[in-house]
Design brief:
Helices cover about 75% and strands about 0% of the residues. With about 230 residues, it is mainly alpha-helical.
C-alpha cells in the first residue's frame, strides 16, 4: 500500500508543467492566428490535445493484456497527466497569464482543473464550503504549505481511484480496450480543457454535463466487456 501511495505521488508530480514552457506554447498558438481571441486559441489547444490523448489511449490499449493491464494503465496515466497538466497550463497562459507568476497558485489552479474534487474536499477540511468544482476565488483561499499538501494528498487518492477504474475498463481486453481507451482519453482531456477555460474566464463550467457523458460512456463500455465464467466444482 505504501509503494502504491509513493507511485501515485510520483505520477501526480507529472501533472504540474513548467510555466515557461506553457508560455512558449501559448505564444506559438497565438502566432498561428494573431486575429483569434484568447478563448478561441484555448479551444484550439483543447482540440490538439484531444488527438494526442486518443493516440495514447489506443496505443496503451493495444499493448495491454490481462497480465499487463496495470503497467499499461500506469503508462497511460503518466502520459495523460502530462497532457492534462500541460493543457491546463497553456490555457492559463492564454487566459490568465499572471497566474503563472506564483508557483503555489499555479499548482493549485492546475490541480483544481485536473482533480476538481480534491480542491473541494481540501476546502471543506479548512472550513470553506464549495461545490465539486470550486471557483477561482475559493481555490486561491487555499494558501500555505499545509493547504497545498492537503490538496496534493486528496488528488493522489482520486488518482488512485481513477487509475483502478480505468485499468479495469480499458486495459483488460486488447483491441477492445484500445477503442475504449482512445475514446475515454479524448473525452477526459476535453473535460479538463473546457473546465480550465471556464475557470479562468470566471463562468459556470460545462464540465458537469461532459462528466455525465463520460460516466454514461464508461458504464456502457464496461457492460460490453466479457465476464469471466465460473467453473463448477
Amino acid at each position: 500500500m505504501d509503494d502504491l501511495h509513493l507511485n501515485l505521488e510520483k505520477l501526480l508530480n507529472l501533472v504540474i508543467p513548467d510555466p515557461a514552457h506553457c508560455r512558449d506554447d501559448a505564444q506559438q498558438l497565438r502566432l498561428q492566428d494573431p486575429n483569434a481571441s484568447s478563448e478561441m486559441i484555448a479551444q484550439r489547444a483543447v482540440k490538439d490535445a484531444r488527438k494526442w490523448a486518443a493516440s495514447v489511449g489506443a496505443v496503451t490499449g493495444i499493448a495491454a493484456s490481462p497480465l499487463t493491464f496495470l503497467p499499461a494503465a500506469v503508462a497511460d496515466a503518466a502520459a495523460m497527466l502530462r497532457l492534462e497538466g500541460k493543457l491546463a497550463g497553456v490555457i492559463a497562459a492564454l487566459l490568465d497569464p499572471a497566474s503563472l507568476d506564483e508557483p503555489e497558485m499555479f499548482r493549485r489552479d492546475v490541480l483544481r482543473n485536473v482533480f476538481p474534487g480534491a480542491v473541494s474536499q481540501a476546502l471543506r477540511k479548512f472550513g470553506i464550503r464549495a461545490t465539486e468544482e470550486a471557483t477561482k476565488n475559493l481555490v486561491r483561499k487555499l494558501a500555505g504549505r499545509e493547504a497545498t499538501k492537503e490538496l496534493t494528498e486528496r488528488a493522489a487518492k482520486l488518482l488512485g481511484i481513477r487509475l483502478t477504474e480505468k485499468a479495469i475498463a480499458t486495459k483488460t481486453i486488447p483491441l477492445v480496450g484500445a477503442g475504449i481507451g482512445a475514446a475515454w482519453n479524448w473525452t477526459e482531456i476535453q473535460l479538463v480543457g473546457y473546465r480550465t477555460i471556464d475557470y479562468h474566464l470566471g463562468r459556470d463550467s460545462a464540465g458537469v454535463r461532459i462528466r455525465k457523458r463520460v460516466n454514461a460512456f464508461v458504464r456502457s463500455q464496461t457492460k460490453k466487456l466479457p465476464r469471466p465464467s465460473r467453473k463448477s466444482d
